[in-house]
Amino acid sequence: MKRKLTNWRLFTFTSLTALFLSGCGEPFLSTLTPAGEAGQTAYDLMLLSTWIMVGVVIVVSVLFAIAVLKFRRKKDDPAIPKQVEGSHVLEMIWTIIPIILLIILAIPTVLATFDLADTKAMDKKKEDGTTDAMVVNVRANLYWWEFEYPNQKIITSQELVVPTDQKVYFNVKASDVKHSFWIPAAGGKIDTNVENVNQIWLEFDGEKAEEADNLFYGKCAELCGPSHALMDFKVHALPKREFDQWVTAMQAIDAKAAEAKPEDPAAAAGQEIFNQKCLSCHAVTTADARPEAARTAPNLAGFGERERIAGILEHNEEELKNWISNPEEYKPGNKMTGTYGELSDQETDQLAAYLMSLKVE
Fold it and tell me: What are the phi and psi torsion angles at 129 (to 5°)?
């Protein structure tokens, strides 16, 4: 008996601890610290539904307590209380009140749904095919993300850069299996399908972004394979001026810049290895002219300044060499089938030196 009591206490403590920790979150990853209009709207709807549910629970609990305490059968009292079965008044009350609560919840939910789905600004194109709206084409792959800026003629991967305090519109799709595009702090998630393009807009609040050091985390929210939990990306939310500077710097990474020889002899040797063994899948220029179907691996332009390697590893040469040597160890089921197992230790060192030299001027 004592052992059962101990196990029950342990179970209760563990459950309560897990429940408490589930509410913890960082400003760059938590839906409970919204960092933009879409996220704030979803958060407000969640609070509204929570307060309605809490109110219902309180009212029902109070009525239940009154019924138990006031109308319980007293000892040695055989009298039967007055029966109120079939009371039309009570039936009307417990029918009308839930309807009113549903209407209170439904109206703002429907309005918010239509507002968050309004992406008509993406369709207003100018003569040159660009738009006034900030547009990003997102393509999900096993297990990495590609980001294309059609107005700016930039293609990059794994790290999304957006301006703050303005709506950013996304066209999202997948190249292999269904994924889901989700930036928890910014707003809702949306499926990326192979057969069609979905659209969504998000807005990043400048002050909230500054509190999070201008860095947010994105994730795949649809089970897509053995490395689903590792399919992360980073979001740099920058003030408009800094975003424009980033665009200018990325546009400068053209074919001529990519062909320039690094000053470091090891990096120069690594460039030769990259051109021979990696260039068929990867690109190091942001203006990647290859058709979408040929972009089978992440674009590595500006790789030397990214936050993570493969979205999950610390950004340093040692971890890069580990990834090049055996990517399957870190992301099971990934499609990187080119160089690992074929390079000597010296070639791996040289290739890593070259990749880390790919920086934005």
Answer: 90, -5
Q: What distance in Å separates the CA atoms of residue 297 and residue 286, rounded to the nearest whole number? A: 14
Query: 172-184 pLDDT, tens per residue?
Result: 999 999 999 999 9
Q: Are 277 and 339 in contact (CB under 8 A)?
A: yes
Long-range contacts of 334-338 (CB under 8 A, 24+ apart): 334/142, 334/143, 334/144, 334/227, 335/141, 335/142, 335/296, 335/297, 336/297, 338/277, 338/278, 338/280, 338/281
Residues 6+ apart with CB under 8 A from 181: 138, 140, 170, 172, 189, 190, 191, 192, 200, 218, 220, 221
Please provide the DSSP assignment of 203-239 as one string. E--HHHHHHTTTEEEEEE-S--STTGGG-EEEEEEE-
Q: Which 8-state DSSP code applies to residue 50? A: H
Most distant CA atoms of the chain, gap in Å: 100
- Residue type at 311 in one-letter notation: G
CA distance 301 to 312: 18
Question: pTM higher than 0.70, yes or no?
Answer: yes
- Specify the pairing of strand 134-141 against strand 167-174: parallel
- Position 354: which residue type? Y
CA distance 204 to 36: 4
The span from the CA of 245 to the CA of 361, in Å, is: 10
> pLDDT tens for residues 1-48?
556 656 777 777 777 777 666 656 555 567 888 888 999 999 999 999
Q: What distances in angstroms separate CA 133 from CA 100, 117, 136, 168, 286, one per listed residue?
A: 39, 15, 10, 7, 20
**Dihedral (Cα; 68, 71, 75, 77), 10-degree rounding:** -160
> Does position 186 have pLDDT exceeding 80, yes or no?
yes
- The label of the residue with tokens 């595009």 reads 181
Cα 55 from chain centroid?
A: 32
Residue 196's SS3 state is coil
Domains in the chain, start-ordered, CATH in brackets? 255-356 (2.60.40.420)
Q: Terminus-to-terminus CA distance in the chain, angstroms? A: 71
- What single-letter DSSP state applies at residue 201? E
